[in-house]
Specification:
The chain has 343 residues and is of the alpha/beta class. The protein has eleven helices and ten strands. The strands form two sheets. The protein has a five-stranded mixed sheet, sandwiched between helices. The chain has a five-stranded mixed sheet with strand order 8-7-6-9-10, with helices on both faces.
């Protein structure tokens, strides 16, 4: 079956083509340059750029796959969760193609796309514990089979990727911040500053990163005497490059600690021998290293998608949609976007 996947849940416009579950093309148009000056994603700008880009991105994916639009047999599109304006752009494009070509349409949960992204490159056995960690989501799920998931824990406030972005903004590193912090941390001392590691006694598999963000700000303001400009970032020249690297490494170490420990503990309690880590933050080099060390010490398997499938992409949406279409699932053209769609 030839599947066209469309993903516009946030700020990346993406399309991909799968043929019998094998990836033929994957195209992603990033908006980093658009949102960078604002220090974060501006929803209105994101949706406007999706409108301008979505058809060109779809055409590029079809062209690279050497597939004509008339050959497509099904369409998979992200219907949530995400920014409602962004979601509606991709969903409208998908509906238009499905209606005009009289082919089946299936809406995909963005989180399920991340959950199954690893299957684009290899087959792994169910069940597994999935850590979904990105700019908008940080959750632990038990994946029993395609379409059968149970949430074990979730963040109470910021997502891990959001915490990285806010820390980077505070340190004057720009947006998106996760990649910059990962790079700077390699030259810093992760033990230079002892940041708190939040845990919730009654719900040990939940996360909380807001206190860590506050601790960084207080460390800068109270202990280092740093002042902030009108954007909330440290004033230029207030910190040495060495101090910034140490702060980045120490902050990253705290985030990684809070991600690794509950995920491994959940797998142990559930008696599951496999862990999948996916989402944009799963590309973080320190998270990968620490998760491999922790799972290796307990004889657990751990799997990561390649970096290009960690961040938002339509290949994972096409794959998740293909599994649904194979099960005979279909959605009507009345399908709507849902910003807070649960998995």
């Amino acid at each position: 079956m030839i599947i066209l996947g469309i993903e516009t849940s946030c700020d990346d416009t993406a399309a991909a083509v799968l043929v019998e579950r094998h990836l033929r093309s994957s195209v992603v148009s990033s908006q980093d340059a658009v949102h960078g000056p604002y220090g974060g994603i501006v929803p209105e700008l994101a949706s406007r750029h999706h409108v301008a880009n979505v058809l060109a991105v779809i055409d590029a994916a079809l062209s690279r796959a050497e597939i004509a639009i008339g050959d497509v047999e099904g369409i998979a599109v992200t219907r949530g969760p995400g920014l409602i304006g962004s979601l509606l752009v991709g969903l409208s494009a998908a509906k238009g193609i499905a209606f005009s070509k009289r082919i089946p349409l299936v809406g995909v949960n963005h989180l399920e796309g991340h959950m199954l992204a690893v299957f684009l490159e290899r087959e792994i056995a169910f069940p597994y514990v999935a850590l979904l960690v990105s700019g908008g989501h940080t959750s632990i799920y038990l994946a029993r089979a395609p379409g059968r998931y149970r949430r074990i824990g979730a963040t109470r406030d910021d997502a891990a990727g959001e915490a990285f972005d806010k820390a980077a903004k505070m340190l004057g590193l720009g947006f998106p911040g996760g990649r910059v912090i990962d790079q700077l941390a390699r030259g810093g001392d992760g033990g230079a500053v002892r940041f708190p590691r939040a845990s919730i006694r009654e719900h040990p598999y939940d996360f909380s990163f807001s206190g860590l963000k506050t601790a960084l700000r207080e460390r800068l303001r109270r202990d280092l005497g740093v002042s902030f400009d009108s954007t909330g970032a440290v004033r230029a020249g207030a910190l040495s490059a060495a101090w910034i690297a140490d702060l980045a490494a120490s902050f990253q170490e705290a985030v990684v600690d809070m991600l690794v420990a509950p995920t491994v503990a959940a797998a142990a309690e559930l008696g599951v021998s496999r862990i999948v880590v996916s989402g944009g933050v799963s590309a973080n080099s320190r998270l990968r290293q620490r998760m491999q060390e922790a799972t290796g010490a307990r004889s657990l398997e751990v799997h990561f998608p390649s970096p290009r499938f960690c961040t938002d992409n339509a290949a994972m949406i096409a794959y998740a949609g293909a599994r649904r279409l194979e099960r005979g699932e279909r959605d009507e053209l009345t399908l709507n976007a849902v910003a807070s769609l649960p998995l």
